[in-house]
Design brief:
40% helix, elongated, 482 residues, 4-stranded antiparallel β-sheet, 5-stranded antiparallel β-sheet, alpha+beta
Length: 482
């Protein structure tokens, strides 16, 4: 008989804080530590929530403060609309944000994760407080875990979670469709806008599953920022760390401690309160989000046993090891210089940007047609983006072109403030004006309010002599069918 397959190897220690040795999910039920850091984080968190809820209702320069219109590829940020033609501006903006993140991490570590990240803000100051209210804190949640999933209190908690997920999903979508459009969707039947309803339902489901089920695994498994900290941090960066010189060796005794015993009493309070389930005493770890819950828990214990606070505190790896502190180092010099350069270029380009963008495109179809009389017709598409705060009408003209006729179905072209419009014009040129099938002309676009721009354009035509008969004498002219 064939021998039985070997048993799978057993892990000697936990690989992830949310994974048991047998591979099953380890649910974290952190105990709340309401210390000084927690009170400050709570003020910051509720302030950020308020800002998030209010931004869709705020306007600047007559436009939404933030509107990310993906279908139109128009992104309005602080009242300025980035159009598809603003590749350079958008690149400089994203570059400035990236450099700012690098600088922030080099200076204060993962302060973003612990203080301002939406995952942390909503998990720790909205969803977890509701969980403690329904389930009775960490011990109550642990009892419900043992009793089974379908407990009345847990089902009631999830019902509240679903309502909050609906509200957050609608607020989040307002950043992409605008609050006015969102209000219309809410007032209409989902059958009238099934696509947008499905998007809202999907966003609600994602938020609900994140905060009800995936939770801290977003930080541990999904978010790339924790993995990037190994290259973004240096030994002088500010982190939340345990002081081994002061805390070691640990001793469980509070009274009658050995003379060489450290301040750490091995109570495990820092582990019980950690929202990602790690032991801060093991050193800097990828899972640590620098939320300072361990510092608050440890300070409370130190106060009870009559020891100074700060066994776990904001510091740097070099400082915790007793090495020198160097404020000036390569990262904190190069990153600010790069940030100033990126912001300077962004500000310069914004300041010198014209109040309208004009783009000339070739017509769709044949590059040119010919009339029976020999004239050559080019169709030119004119796209105008009005960046101003008032409606404008843009006049299209040809510069120094006496023999050339411009036919425009809509001239001047009206364009609303902050919008883009397109029209087609037809340029009629005697065939003899072309040289090797090319003719260079200049278009002038003006709004009569101070904006005027001349753009070069290359018309195309027949390369043969103008005296030769036209091959496409039956082609339609703009007046005959275009």
């Amino acid at each position: 008989m064939p021998s039985a397959p070997p048993a799978p190897p057993q892990a000697q220690q936990r690989v992830l804080s949310t994974l048991n040795v047998d591979g099953s999910r380890r649910w974290l039920r952190p105990k709340l530590s309401t210390g000084a850091f927690w009170r400050r984080r709570r003020v910051v968190a509720y302030g950020l929530m308020l800002v998030f809820f209010l931004i869709p209702y705020l306007r600047m320069n007559g436009r939404p403060l933030v509107l990310l219109d993906i279908p139109r590829r128009e992104f309005t940020i602080f009242g300025y609309t980035f159009l598809p033609t603003d590749t350079l501006l958008f690149m400089l903006l994203l570059m400035s944000i990236a450099i700012a993140i690098f600088l922030l991490t080099a200076l204060v570590g993962r302060a973003w994760c612990g203080w301002a990240c939406p995952q942390t803000v909503y998990m720790e100051f909205l969803f977890r407080p509701i969980e403690r209210l329904f389930e009775g804190g960490a011990s109550g949640s642990t009892r419900l875990d043992k009793a089974g999933r379908f407990q009345p209190r847990r089902l009631a908690k999830h019902a509240v979670y679903l309502v909050l997920a609906l509200f957050l999903a609608h607020t989040f979508l307002a950043y992409f469709v605008g609050i006015e459009q969102l209000v219309q969707w809410v007032q209409r039947s989902p059958l009238e806008h099934p696509t947008s309803f499905l998007i809202m339902a999907g966003t609600t489901a994602a938020i609900f599953l994140d905060f009800a089920w995936f939770r801290e695994q977003t930080c541990i498994l999904a978010c790339p920022y924790g993995r990037l900290q190994s290259v973004l941090l240096d030994r002088q960066s500010l982190i939340v760390g345990y002081d081994p010189r002061r805390g070691e060796p640990r001793s469980l005794k509070v009274k009658g401690r050995a003379a060489d015993a450290g301040d750490c009493i091995a109570c495990g309070a820092c582990v019980l309160t950690c929202p990602t389930g790690i032991d801060i005493r093991d050193g800097l770890q990828m899972e640590c989000i620098h939320c300072t819950q361990c510092a608050d828990a440890c300070d409370a214990i130190m106060e009870r046993v009559g020891k100074p606070k700060g066994l776990i505190r904001y510091s740097s790896r070099d400082a915790l090891e007793g090495l020198g502190v160097h404020l000036l180092r390569a990262r904190v010099i190069l990153y600010p210089l790069a940030l100033v350069l990126a912001l300077g270029l962004l500000g310069f380009n914004l300041g010198t940007k014209a109040v309208a963008d004009v783009t000339l495109l070739r017509g769709i179809g044949a590059p040119f047609t010919r009339e029976p009389g020999g004239r050559v017709i080019n169709q030119v598409r004119v796209r105008v983006a009005n960046r101003g705060h008032a409606d404008r009408a843009y006049l299209l003209e040809l510069v120094d072109a006496e023999e050339i006729t411009l036919v425009a179905p809509q001239n001047p072209l009206p364009v609303a403030a902050g919008k883009m419009a397109q029209t087609s014009v037809f340029v009629m040129v005697p065939a003899g004006e072309f040289e090797h099938g090319e003719l260079h002309v200049r278009f002038r676009v003006s709004d009569g309010k101070g904006f005027a721009e001349e753009l070069p354009y290359e018309l195309v035509g027949p390369a043969e002599s103008a005296e030769e008969p036209a091959d496409d004498a039956g082609a339609e002219s703009p007046g005959e069918g275009s």
